[in-house]
Amino acid sequence: MSPQRRSGLGTNQEAIRRHNLGTLLRHVHGAGQISRAELTTLMGLNRSTIAGLVGELESLGISERATAPEGARQGAGRPSAGVRIAQDGPYVIAVDLGVDRAVVARVGLGGQVLQRAQAPVSSDGEAWQVGAAVAALIRAVVEDVPGSSSLVGIGISVPGLVRRSDGLVRLAPNLEWHDVSFGGIVLAALGLDIPVSIANDADLGALAEHTRGAGVGVDDLIYVSGNVGVGAGVIAGGHRLEGAGGYAGEVGHLRFNPDGRPCHCGNQGCWETEVGAHAIAEAIQCPAAKVAQLDEVLDGFDQASPELRATGTALGQGLASIVNSFNPQLVVLGGYFRSLYRLVSTEVNAGLADRALPAPLESVTLALPGLGADSALLGAAEIALEPLFVDPVAALGTALDDVQARLAG
Amino acid sequence: MSPQRRSGLGTNQEAIRRHNLGTLLRHVHGAGQISRAELTTLMGLNRSTIAGLVGELESLGISERATAPEGARQGAGRPSAGVRIAQDGPYVIAVDLGVDRAVVARVGLGGQVLQRAQAPVSSDGEAWQVGAAVAALIRAVVEDVPGSSSLVGIGISVPGLVRRSDGLVRLAPNLEWHDVSFGGIVLAALGLDIPVSIANDADLGALAEHTRGAGVGVDDLIYVSGNVGVGAGVIAGGHRLEGAGGYAGEVGHLRFNPDGRPCHCGNQGCWETEVGAHAIAEAIQCPAAKVAQLDEVLDGFDQASPELRATGTALGQGLASIVNSFNPQLVVLGGYFRSLYRLVSTEVNAGLADRALPAPLESVTLALPGLGADSALLGAAEIALEPLFVDPVAALGTALDDVQARLAG
Fold first, then answer.
1. Nearest residue of A to residue B231 by CA position?
2. Which of A294, A308, A352, B219 is the most exposed place for a label (fewest CB within 10 A)?
3. Which residues form the domain of B312?
4. Which of B246, B248, B360 lies nearest to residue A243, judging by beta carbons?
């Protein structure tokens, strides 16, 4: 068909085919490995259309044949033809930037962490210094990448408020950043021109836990991230709650104790001043220098002091406001709350039960992240992979191969 | 075509046609009057398909021809053919149940209130007594209905937590209702069997303000309802935020002043104890017997006392938690907050600015409801009309004509 004739119905059909190809890839990505029969059912397309799409994904180097889905060989029947993510297929770089350390990973489809590196970052460093440190970690994680694999994009998680429209970091209070274009800084440090997506850490934690963590199949969930600051990522009705500018979920600044500690936001007694890392550290008399290892310190305790139990109560009482406001089915406790919750789950649940209304309380469950400490990291991978699910052909068209050589040059 | 042959493609085409018919009706409903040319653009269908759908709506008695949309006769050009809601077309009954009074209206497509009635209700009455009072109001508003008009359903707004799955009123604290099936009670009192939808008043206020009030075209808005209790209805990304059970938006119980007044929920110092009707009444020394007319009392003031200004500050400070949590573009202040805001807008805005984070603060606007005191009432009409937009043919098939005679019988 000549280019001139690819218009009208032809273009529509091509758009639908690419859309179907992306949707099929999203299913393979979610499941890791899946049978053609399952794809036929999930997508409502006939077997020959599915076969054609699967063949195209294979020829693009994205997927490969699998004899049978994992766990499907239980009976004596013939194994059904399956699809799985290809070895050496396209990948993304995921960056989880914390207040005191950066974690960078090369992540493939299916959420596989293929290589990872991390380094401390100084919270009083300039954004360009942090960008240079992140760029060095990126160079490290692509060291062993095969030349045939191509980089689709970079996803970055930051502990701050990110403007949805352009990814500008409006405020990362504990890094003391205001209006920082961190994505551009990282690209400049790498000398690459490639799609970069950036979002709030709690929003990405929620996304990843919903996609492949504790919240798979749960349409209303909240990921509460307890680090130096406290924030929430909200999935409502199966979709990310972003708000008008992308800033929804700043629950760390819920009014909690009007006579309480001063907060960096200028107010007193915000919830994060009562349950954030500094409050936890104070409760266990952890020296300031060790706040960055607060989870390890907490993991060393086998019982909670009265002060730590009070922190647990405050955590539960604040969660009650979240449960009353959002009526989630699941609240995932991330960051330092993972270690804290193991010690004071009784107090957290009591604080929640004490202050939540009975109707939203009865249907909510508190849980630890299914992805451990990697929720935000894998959420960053998800937003970087997203273009592949919209149009795999177009996304691969702009992806970079031989990244290692380009970075060396 | 014989019934046997209405399968496969035929049934699909029929489903698509009915879907298109409902979508076209939704556009006419939203605009009140609209030209065929606009419908062609909005729906992406060709002129003859639109003409066919418009003809079908006319033959169903739902719409009628209009020579030109209002305001379109500015130039000397030929008036374009238009569509408007038919006189004597289908209608719904909308019920806005408050703690102290019920308002009932007969509402047509386009959100037209065709007839209304209201009566006080006793907050210590049993649910069946309130149901009987509402049924009497319903009988009153259908008195003049033409026999050819048919009743599609009943929509009810209640000041409480409503379970989404079945409309059970789990809790209406200020009516002292627990697990009341109020929709069923009203139908029993009427002796009718007809679809009844029931939802929280603030959720319905948000829906109506989004559809035809202050928030038309605003995808992220919050309607905060200030009555005896305080609650919020949230539109996020263009859709109602319902939560897992339908209870999202219970912001009246945000922790505000841990040493404050006792709240009916069992806690102390919830936000609604500082800004709800009783707090406002106390600030203006309004006797308890007149709390039901609090808006009229407030409208009689031309300046605010220091106590009322403090209530305004508390309103703004609590709104800051809502703005930080949901990042709305618009906050609509309903219920008694309408009258309060006129007196203390400076304090409300200062309280908000004092405690909201700069990024979500800079894009939010506070507004009064575009629908005055009728937001929840018209939201109740919207949920009752909804089946008409899903499938007008099916909804009219189950609608009741000659309602007046049925109710008399």
1. A325
2. B219
3. 215-369
4. B360
